[in-house]
Amino acid sequence: MTARSVDLSIVIPVYNEADNIEPLYAVLKAVLDASGRSYEVIIVDDGSKDESYSILKRLALADLLLKVIRFRRNFGQTAAFSAGFDYAQGNVIITMDADLQNDPQDIPRLLAEMERSGADVVSGWRAKRQEPFLTRRLPSTIANSLISWATGVPLHDYGCSLKAYRREIVKNIRLYGDLHRFIPAIASWMGIQVVEVPVQDHPRRHGKSKYGLSRTMKVILDLLTVRFLLSYSARPMRIFGFVGLLSFGVGLAINLYLSIYRLALHRPIADRPLLLLGILLNVVGVQMISMGLLAELIIRVYHEAQGKPIYVIKETIGITEDWL
Description:
With 324 residues, this protein is α/β, with parallel strands linked by helices. It contains ten helices and eight strands. The protein is elongated.
């Protein structure tokens, strides 16, 4: 089978979801068949340790529209999405989770909004989340507000995996770490239009959630990364240099004051903590400027040689190398 363009590609990462795969695929296939569009479903087994892959293999051998990618180990959800994007042939690429909390019945709503508004990204918004308030919904609300403010791309629900992207959006971004939830923000440099659509959120029926409060700190650190990428990835000297010059300038002012104090008033300054502060600020300033110069060199290398993959595939079903 050769690569071909289809209307829709559904990309679903899977990690230990054996109980959810068959009911999810049954509903998903019914929705896609009823849509009247050509489609493919790409499910990425992210190193599952349960029976997920054997179930996927059985389903894929019975349905040529299901493509399966199996990782050698668990590389994470971002890597799974990235692999799905690399192999997806659809003009519109839809992402969703495999835990049955995202409802395939909402896919036509995303597509209708994309056609109506002409948006490049349609993001699902779980307006009525079926999760505990204190441990899940409240931290999520705070995180979404912070992300929207920091990135300039306002969304109510960055954490919802149910999203629709035009092909050229996901084909022109590179993901790493845990940045999959920030795709709309990362892609904003292209001048994209993002809209939201309320979608259903069902409680998890099988398996165990992979997320908890521990994810909050990771999200904050990832947000700092995204903010840097959006504002300073092309010119890191602007942030390192600014901080360095500020630190060096304050240190220089302190040392100049102490020098005048020593020369004019003939007072000792060797035992003053302010002298140590001034010297420290000078040193930090030089270090920050040096880091900025090194970052500039690294950025040049990054843009010229960014070929290292973030995942390793063990085997595939229904996919050949000419898909890439």
